[in-house]
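Homework help board

Subject: predicted structure for assignment chain

Our instructor gave us this sequence and asked us to write out the predicted structure in token form, then describe one feature. I got the tokens but I'm not sure how to describe them. Can anyone check?
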Amino acid sequence: MAKLTRKQKETAALIERNKVYTLEEASGLVKEISRTKFDASVDVAVRLGVDPRKANQMVRGVVTLPHGTGKTVRVLALVTADKEAEAREAGADMVGLDDYLEKIKNGWTDVDVIITLPSVMGKLGPLGRILGPRGLMPNPKTGTVTMDVGKAVAEVKAGKIDFKVDKYGIVHASVGKVSFEPAKLRENAEELIKTLVRLKPVAAKGQYIKSIYLSSTMSRGIAVDSKSVA
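My token output:
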């Protein structure tokens, strides 16, 4: 078993064994335990009491974080010529259609979010094997397939993220950067958790929020008391 470095020991000492922290405490502590030289992402992992193999227990949705993610989100708008100006004015980084479809067909996926029109989805279908595994396939449920392209682009740029429970029943999402003030991290995480609570499937029985952990890139997870989320 590899020995812990001095920094890892110092970090580990900050987190009390078996302690469950309030979200407010965890939002401050996650900044202290980050030892990366870059501005690390702060992530939330929420384990839900659902069986994602059953369609009526799938949890998926979108949330606009009050303070954004702190990340520069690269948005590609796959739109027809009449929508190009609208997409650019809203802040899309890349705008076009056939040229980008060809690039994607050849394996290009250097983008974070793709927004498109309902009429274009037919052309994207064959590219599902490339876009699907990377979480880039536009979906009406997440607002990335819409006629209101400008609004969709602006929302993504402002901090709108989509999430989906994985096969283990866990939702992972980035809620900011270590450089954020603790209050902003707390408010972003709280918005995500409250959204998950609102999306509780009727078919989910028993305890819904099983556990919540807050962590930064390469740091240990901090256990959060779900009751501390107002």
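Reply (TA_rk): Your tokens look well-formed. For the description, you could write something like this. The chain has a mean pLDDT of 90. That's the kind of observation they're looking for.
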